Amino acid sequence: MSVQLPPAIIKPIQHALLNKYFIISAEAVLFYDYFMMLPAEIEHIWMTKWGIGNFLYFSTRYMAFVESPFIVLYAFDVGLGKSSSAPMLCERFYKTAAWLDLWGIVLATNILLLRTAAIWGWTRRALACVVVANLIAPPISIYGLGKTLASMRYVPSPVPSLFPCNADFPTDIAYLAFAMVMINETSVLVLTVYRRIRTWPERPTPLLRSLYHDAILFFGCLIVVSILNLVLYATPSLKDFYQLLVQMQFILHSVSTARIILHLRLTSCESGTIDGSALLSKEYMKKGKAIQNFQISGDADSDFDFTPIELDARGPSVDARGEEAKQYIVVNPYMI
Count of alpha carbons within 13 Å of 299, Cβ hemisphere only? Predict the structure, then answer.
């Protein structure tokens, strides 16, 4: 004899199943991207000299693998739901995953900010923007997430065989964290597009194209997911879908920022960019020069000399010889 559950119970179960499907989808994206990019990672990350770029790459790439087991256990471990310690374990797993999510996204956002600062020539204003963003966004995000997790209350699952853990959040202001992420990423996208419009040369190099192509493509995707998460968390009627895109947003941040770093190194090894730097000057582009002051370094792990390349003259000035003073930057794909 079959038992038919009332609609009031069926609908939340359907919504919870949808959340679980999206968690699995996010994990599939993570592992697919990892194994697809692993050969390039071994060659251009593992086999290169340790530096800030390597540290950022390993941090953003492998933070996702540290966090994933906690959210998977929370959502899928049937034995956990039937355990007498379920309230304590579910709470610990969820809170651990939530804090790792936040720190992973903060790290990824800083990679995006540093990359934007590189596009702007590492100017003082660009670096000041990075500092200000870190003084505002992370504290607000930590406050919002901390208050939300502090109010977490375990609720016995109606179907432990499907949903081992269930929780309620009477004080839910985690949307503050998503709002900060969205604001930061929107600012990064606007600054990148503006810079692209103002300084795009007639003959862009592959490295320059990679800088802007990755920026617009990845930033655009991340902003869309951040906006959707903000809407879900800020709308009480959508509370059943709070977990729908959280894991996907975290995984996309990890994948995107890891690819940004790796793409720069891959492109720098292509023909025409063997000096490892981006030839960004309009003047040099018109002359068709591909390399400037190329030298072979004595370092076995780094055979490139990253020479200063003119980016853009912001406000013409005249030097002692009557020539226009140029502004130079060093675009090093092994730095970010």
Answer: 10
Distance of CA 179 to the CA centre of its chain: 15
Query: Is residue 263 within 8 Å of residue 62, measured between CB atoms?
Result: no
pLDDT at residue 335, as a whole number: 55
Q: Which residue(s) pair with 303 in the sheet? A: none
- With the C-alpha atoms ordered 174, 17, 221, 71, is the resulting torsion angle positive or negative? positive
pLDDT at 275: 38
* Closest listed residue to residue 40, CA positions, set 298, 270, 201, 293: 270
- What's the pLDDT at 310? 39
Q: HSE-up of 223 (CA within 13 Å, CB side)?
A: 15
- Boundaries of every domain in the chain: 13-268
SS3 148: helix
Q: Report pLDDT for 333.
A: 55
Burial class (CB in 10 A: 0-12, 13-18, 19+), 245: buried
Which of residues 323 and 148 earns the better pLDDT score? 148
Binning pLDDT at 50, 70 and 90, where does residue 268 land?
confident
Q: Which amino acid is at 8?
A: A
pLDDT, tens digit (0-9, with 9 covering 90-100), for 75-120? 998 777 777 888 899 999 999 999 999 999 999 999 989 888 888 8
**Dist. CA 118–CA 232, nearest whole Å:** 34
Q: What are phi and psi of 276, to 5 degrees?
A: 75, 10
What pLDDT is attached to residue 139? 95
Rounded Cα distance, 87 and 72, in Å = 16
Q: In CATH, what number does 13-268 get?
A: 1.20.1070
Q: Which amino acid is at 113?
A: L
**Structure confidence by residue, pLDDT tens digits, 111-152:** 989 888 888 888 898 889 899 999 999 999 999 999 999 999
The pLDDT of residue 84 is: 82
- Tell me the C-alpha distance between 278 and 121, whole Å: 12
Phi then psi for 318, rounded to 5 degrees? Answer: -120, 135
Rounded distance between C-alpha atoms, residue 148 and residue 144, angstroms: 6
